[in-house]
Amino acid sequence: MNVAAINWDAVTAIGQAVGALGVIISLIYVGLQVRADARARRAQTTHDQAAAYTTLLMQTSTDPEVADLIARGSRDLGELTGDNELTRFSAIMAAHFRTFEDAFIQHRMGHLDDRVWVGFETPISFNLRNPGVRALWALSRGQSFFCKEFENFIDSRVAEGQGKPTSSLAASMQTTSNRAAQ
Protein backbone atom coordinates (compact mmCIF):
# COMPACT_ATOMS: atom_id res chain seq x y z
CA MET A 1 0.00 0.00 0.00
CA ASN A 2 1.27 3.42 -0.89
CA VAL A 3 1.58 5.66 2.17
CA ALA A 4 1.04 8.69 0.04
CA ALA A 5 -2.36 7.33 -1.00
CA ILE A 6 -3.75 7.33 2.58
CA ASN A 7 -6.20 10.14 3.11
CA TRP A 8 -5.15 11.47 6.49
CA ASP A 9 -8.19 13.73 6.64
CA ALA A 10 -10.45 10.67 6.44
CA VAL A 11 -8.44 8.84 9.10
CA THR A 12 -8.66 11.89 11.37
CA ALA A 13 -12.41 12.15 10.79
CA ILE A 14 -12.91 8.45 11.59
CA GLY A 15 -10.80 8.82 14.74
CA GLN A 16 -12.83 11.82 15.85
CA ALA A 17 -16.09 9.97 15.18
CA VAL A 18 -14.93 6.96 17.20
CA GLY A 19 -13.78 9.29 20.01
CA ALA A 20 -17.12 11.13 20.00
CA LEU A 21 -18.98 7.82 20.12
CA GLY A 22 -16.85 6.79 23.10
CA VAL A 23 -17.71 10.04 24.88
CA ILE A 24 -21.44 9.55 24.18
CA ILE A 25 -21.34 5.98 25.49
CA SER A 26 -19.46 7.16 28.60
CA LEU A 27 -22.02 9.91 29.24
CA ILE A 28 -24.90 7.43 28.89
CA TYR A 29 -23.16 5.08 31.33
CA VAL A 30 -22.52 7.89 33.84
CA GLY A 31 -26.17 9.01 33.52
CA LEU A 32 -27.39 5.48 34.23
CA GLN A 33 -25.07 5.24 37.23
CA VAL A 34 -26.26 8.57 38.62
CA ARG A 35 -29.89 7.47 38.24
CA ALA A 36 -29.18 4.14 39.95
CA ASP A 37 -27.31 5.93 42.74
CA ALA A 38 -30.23 8.33 43.29
CA ARG A 39 -32.64 5.39 43.53
CA ALA A 40 -30.33 3.63 45.97
CA ARG A 41 -30.07 6.79 48.11
CA ARG A 42 -33.86 7.17 48.19
CA ALA A 43 -34.24 3.52 49.16
CA GLN A 44 -31.62 3.89 51.90
CA THR A 45 -33.25 7.07 53.18
CA THR A 46 -36.62 5.33 53.32
CA HIS A 47 -35.08 2.43 55.19
CA ASP A 48 -33.22 4.71 57.62
CA GLN A 49 -36.33 6.77 58.35
CA ALA A 50 -38.46 3.70 58.92
CA ALA A 51 -35.80 2.16 61.17
CA ALA A 52 -35.45 5.35 63.24
CA TYR A 53 -39.19 5.67 63.77
CA THR A 54 -39.65 1.97 64.45
CA THR A 55 -36.89 2.12 67.06
CA LEU A 56 -38.65 5.02 68.80
CA LEU A 57 -41.96 3.21 68.74
CA MET A 58 -40.47 -0.03 70.05
CA GLN A 59 -38.67 1.75 72.87
CA THR A 60 -41.85 3.44 74.00
CA SER A 61 -44.22 0.53 73.45
CA THR A 62 -42.23 -2.14 75.26
CA ASP A 63 -41.91 -0.23 78.53
CA PRO A 64 -45.26 0.21 80.33
CA GLU A 65 -43.86 3.04 82.48
CA VAL A 66 -42.77 4.99 79.38
CA ALA A 67 -46.06 4.27 77.64
CA ASP A 68 -47.92 5.62 80.69
CA LEU A 69 -45.69 8.69 80.79
CA ILE A 70 -46.41 9.40 77.12
CA ALA A 71 -50.14 8.89 77.58
CA ARG A 72 -50.31 11.23 80.57
CA GLY A 73 -48.01 13.87 79.07
CA SER A 74 -49.87 13.79 75.76
CA ARG A 75 -53.17 14.41 77.52
CA ASP A 76 -51.93 17.23 79.72
CA LEU A 77 -48.45 18.35 80.79
CA GLY A 78 -50.01 19.04 84.20
CA GLU A 79 -50.47 15.27 84.73
CA LEU A 80 -46.69 14.85 84.85
CA THR A 81 -45.32 14.87 88.38
CA GLY A 82 -42.08 16.67 88.99
CA ASP A 83 -39.36 17.90 86.71
CA ASN A 84 -38.10 14.39 86.07
CA GLU A 85 -41.27 13.27 84.30
CA LEU A 86 -41.53 16.50 82.31
CA THR A 87 -37.88 16.14 81.28
CA ARG A 88 -38.39 12.53 80.22
CA PHE A 89 -41.57 13.35 78.29
CA SER A 90 -39.86 16.32 76.64
CA ALA A 91 -36.91 14.15 75.61
CA ILE A 92 -39.17 11.46 74.16
CA MET A 93 -41.22 13.99 72.21
CA ALA A 94 -38.06 15.79 71.06
CA ALA A 95 -36.83 12.48 69.66
CA HIS A 96 -40.14 12.02 67.86
CA PHE A 97 -40.09 15.55 66.48
CA ARG A 98 -36.43 15.22 65.48
CA THR A 99 -37.25 12.02 63.57
CA PHE A 100 -40.18 13.76 61.92
CA GLU A 101 -38.00 16.77 61.10
CA ASP A 102 -35.40 14.58 59.45
CA ALA A 103 -38.10 12.87 57.37
CA PHE A 104 -39.51 16.30 56.49
CA ILE A 105 -36.11 17.53 55.30
CA GLN A 106 -35.41 14.33 53.37
CA HIS A 107 -38.82 14.64 51.69
CA ARG A 108 -38.19 18.29 50.80
CA MET A 109 -34.82 17.34 49.31
CA GLY A 110 -36.47 14.67 47.17
CA HIS A 111 -34.86 11.75 49.00
CA LEU A 112 -38.10 10.49 50.55
CA ASP A 113 -40.95 9.47 48.28
CA ASP A 114 -44.35 11.14 48.70
CA ARG A 115 -45.93 7.76 49.46
CA VAL A 116 -43.51 7.23 52.33
CA TRP A 117 -43.81 10.81 53.59
CA VAL A 118 -47.54 10.27 54.17
CA GLY A 119 -46.55 7.60 56.68
CA PHE A 120 -44.75 10.29 58.69
CA GLU A 121 -47.18 13.13 58.10
CA THR A 122 -50.13 11.15 59.48
CA PRO A 123 -48.56 10.37 62.88
CA ILE A 124 -47.40 13.98 63.17
CA SER A 125 -50.98 15.20 62.75
CA PHE A 126 -52.25 12.41 64.99
CA ASN A 127 -49.82 13.31 67.79
CA LEU A 128 -50.60 17.01 67.50
CA ARG A 129 -54.24 16.39 68.35
CA ASN A 130 -53.11 15.80 71.94
CA PRO A 131 -53.18 18.93 74.14
CA GLY A 132 -49.97 18.01 75.98
CA VAL A 133 -48.05 17.52 72.72
CA ARG A 134 -49.33 20.85 71.39
CA ALA A 135 -48.35 22.57 74.68
CA LEU A 136 -44.88 21.04 74.55
CA TRP A 137 -44.55 22.11 70.91
CA ALA A 138 -45.50 25.67 71.86
CA LEU A 139 -42.73 25.67 74.47
CA SER A 140 -40.16 24.20 72.04
CA ARG A 141 -40.80 26.14 68.86
CA GLY A 142 -38.71 29.20 68.20
CA GLN A 143 -35.91 27.95 70.47
CA SER A 144 -33.69 26.89 67.54
CA PHE A 145 -34.32 23.22 68.30
CA PHE A 146 -35.75 22.67 64.82
CA CYS A 147 -35.30 24.25 61.41
CA LYS A 148 -37.65 27.12 60.61
CA GLU A 149 -39.30 25.27 57.70
CA PHE A 150 -40.21 22.36 59.96
CA GLU A 151 -41.53 24.71 62.63
CA ASN A 152 -43.71 26.40 60.01
CA PHE A 153 -44.95 23.00 58.84
CA ILE A 154 -45.90 21.91 62.37
CA ASP A 155 -47.47 25.29 63.10
CA SER A 156 -49.57 24.96 59.95
CA ARG A 157 -50.75 21.52 61.08
CA VAL A 158 -51.77 22.91 64.46
CA ALA A 159 -53.50 25.94 62.85
CA GLU A 160 -55.39 23.78 60.34
CA GLY A 161 -57.36 22.05 63.03
CA GLN A 162 -55.55 22.00 66.33
CA GLY A 163 -53.75 18.86 65.19
CA LYS A 164 -56.87 16.94 64.32
CA PRO A 165 -56.20 13.89 62.13
CA THR A 166 -55.89 14.95 58.50
CA SER A 167 -56.06 11.62 56.69
CA SER A 168 -58.51 8.78 56.49
CA LEU A 169 -56.00 6.52 58.29
CA ALA A 170 -55.71 8.94 61.20
CA ALA A 171 -59.47 9.43 61.27
CA SER A 172 -59.89 5.66 61.33
CA MET A 173 -57.36 5.39 64.16
CA GLN A 174 -59.23 8.11 66.06
CA THR A 175 -62.56 6.31 65.61
CA THR A 176 -61.00 3.02 66.76
CA SER A 177 -59.43 4.63 69.85
CA ASN A 178 -62.74 6.33 70.70
CA ARG A 179 -64.55 2.97 70.51
CA ALA A 180 -61.89 1.33 72.69
CA ALA A 181 -62.22 4.09 75.30
CA GLN A 182 -65.98 3.55 75.59
Brief synopsis:
This protein is 80% helix and 0% strand. It is built from seven helices and no strands. The radius of gyration is 27 Å and the shape is rod-shaped.
Structural description of this entry:
By secondary structure, this protein is mostly helical. It has one domain (47-181). It is built from seven helices and no strands. Residues 162-181 have low confidence and may be disordered.
Structural class: mainly alpha
Residue fraction in strands? under 5%
Reported for the largest beta sheet, the result is:
none
The overall average pLDDT, rounded, is: 80
Q: Strand-and-helix sequence, N→C?
A: HHHHHHH
How many H/I helical runs? 7
In total, the number of strands is 0
Low-confidence stretches: 162-181
Rg over CA atoms, rounded to whole Å, is 27 Å
- Give the N-terminus to C-terminus distance in angstroms: 100 Å
Number of domains: 1
The residue fraction in helices comes out at over 70%
Key features of this structure:
single chain; mainly alpha; 182 residues; 80% helix
Task: Describe the secondary structure blueprint for this structure.
Layout: H1 8-61, H2 64-75, H3 82-108, H4 114-127, H5 131-140, H6 148-161, H7 168-181
Helix pairs in contact: 1-3, 2-5, 3-4
